[in-house]
Amino acid sequence: MTWTILVLVVGILLFLFGGMLLPKGDGKKPSAKNILLNKSIKLIAIVLISGSICRLYVPYYLTAVNPIIVQEMITGMQEQQQAEKNKQISKTVRADGARMMADAPILGNRDAKKTVYVWTDFSCPYCRRVHGELERVLANRDDVRVVVKNFSIHGALSDAPAKAVIAAKLQSPEKAAELTNMLMTREFYTQADLKDQSKIAEKVEANVMKMAKEAGLDTEKLKEDMNGEVVARELRNVRELAQRFEINGTPFLIIGEKAFPGAIPYDQINDALND
Which partner for 266 in 75, 124, 133, 208 could form a disulfide, CB atoms 3.0-4.6 Å apart? Predict the structure, then answer.
């Protein structure tokens, strides 16, 4: 702002007094050279004045007179960025979809033609909400599968559940889906568990194992597989894709080949599947 005002002042001074900077000729009339120089100085002054006024007025116009333009510009930029992200997602899903699904728990019809990928965390309330919406979708149509990408971002509250459902798939895809639903709809830690943070991971895992046993899983084998290469590989894949798609939080859905951040409702999911 200071530099803009300074340039404006210089432009005004040049316009008013720029001719005084020219050398005086011997004759009464100014020479053709001086006339040309004087016109050039006036032109430069007009450019400086016009540019400075524009720079001073445009922010005022955008913020005070017509702020809707700023909003439209931001919206346009966001739409452009989202379009670019969707292009990258589309390219990745087409080229690498099989690997994205290979080790992940899958809900619904595993042979379905339509796929929803969801980056989720079992301790995230918004993820639980969108899980309920996805369950409604699966209950009403058999042409959809949901690939659960366990983005463990809440430490001890997230790690054991995420590893358990991935490991459960090695025993039974159906039981992995059942355990996923149990962990998304029931509490696997209490407020009392949170009081002793040094033991929270141990308590969460113990509660997860109780649900796993209820789902009919071999819990000893499950514990072994939770620390195995398949689980580690899937968690790496989740993080790598999250970084590539700029996923900073959960839930985050990819429906078809488009991104939908946040806990979107049933109707929006259904509409995206129908596109």
Answer: 133
Q: What is d(CA 271, CA 92) in angstroms, rounded to the nearest whole number?
A: 22
> C-alpha angle with apex 86: 80 to 89, nearest 5 degrees?
150
Predicted confidence (pLDDT) per residue in 160-200, tens digit = 999 999 999 999 999 999 999 999 999 998 888 888 888 89
The pair of three-digit structure tokens given for residue 11, joined into one six-digit string:
């432009």
Give the residue from 175, 108, 146 showing the smallest Cα distance to 260.
146
Task: For residue 232, name the pLDDT band (cuts at 50, 70, 90).
Answer: very high
**Contact predicate 237/119, CB 8 Å:** no
Prediction pTM value: 0.71
Q: Tell me the C-alpha distance between 125 and 25, whole Å.
A: 84
Strands 144-150 and 114-120: parallel
Cα 270 from Cα 255, distance rounded (Å): 9
Q: Which H helix or E strand runs over 107?
A: strand 106-108
Give the bridge partners for 260, in sequence order.
253
Interatomic CA distance for residues 110 and 144, integer angstroms: 8
